[in-house]
Amino acid sequence: MRRLSAALFFLFVAAATRAEWTTTSTRAEPAVAAGLEHRHVVLEESETGDRAIVDLAIFSTKSCALRVIDNPGSDKILADAMEQGKCLAGVNGGYFDPNFAPIGLRIIDGKLVSPLLRARLLTGVLISSARGIQIVRLSEFSRKEKLDAAIECGPMIVDLGAKVHGLNDTRLARRSFAAVDRNDRAALGFCSEATLASLARILAGQFVADFKIQRGLNLDGGSSSAFWFKRKDGSVFSIPEQKSVRDFVAVVPR
Using the 8-state DSSP alphabet, how is residue 47 labeled? Predict the structure, then answer.
């Protein structure tokens, strides 16, 4: 019986090891600002044949920064907020409660709007400052540093270049996220329906040849997820949200 159990376990591990997300096509297009580009990546899972599409706004943190844009009246959609703010790219922001109040830390234009919250799902903070852009765990976060923008969300999906274990692998939903690499580059992204565990496997893999993600943070997903990017010719690539959201995260010139 033990031998049979061991054999079944080995087959399970071997199958899990073989199952990988493979990039089947990539399209890149420049933005109106230098150091920023849109990547449209189509992937397929080798074991199941599942398909996922990831859109990324990848940018240099030396030429671009992040801004959190509030939407307290729920009257703006991502596309309107990006155009009005003269932004380069953006996604939806963090979690909010039924009364439309933000859940977790928000720093907008250098001002504290909502305090840090200790909660199981909220495991990281995306911050933008004069030093650049970082994703930090709550235990690493310090209010001593002057921050231009910050948004608390989670869960963390990639850490130290590896997928985070223990993420849900059953619930499919649209996803939005932020990511950083080791080379002063960051990204805001959108993924078509995927589980959190699948998204972690995708982002931890080298699915974009020149952008190896070191940390990735999940933003508010499902019907909140949205993506917007202004191309070099002034036209827009946009995936709209399916409901009103409390805030947005935008890429702006530094």
Answer: T
Residue type, 173: A
Which of 45-54, 100-109, 215-224, 234-243 bottoms out in mean pLDDT, i.e. has the lowest? 45-54
**pTM, two decimal places:** 0.91
CB atoms within 10 A of CB 8: 10
Six token digits for residue 243 = 């409901």
Cα dist from 133 to 197, 243, 254, whole Å: 24, 28, 11
Report d(CA 28, CA 56) in Å as an integer.
10
Question: Which DSSP string corresponds to 73-90?
Answer: TS---HHHHHHHTT-SEE
3-state DSSP assignment of residue 119: coil
The pLDDT tens digits for 100-155 are 999 999 999 999 999 999 998 999 999 999 999 999 999 999 888 899 999 999 99
DSSP codes, 166-204: T---S--EEEEEEEE-SSSEEEEEEEEEE-HHHHHHHHH
The DSSP bridge partners found for residue 62 are none
Q: What span, in angstroms and rounded, lies between the C-alpha atoms of 186 and 64?
A: 9
Q: Are residues 208 and 21 in contact, defined by beta-carbon separation less than 8 angstroms?
A: no
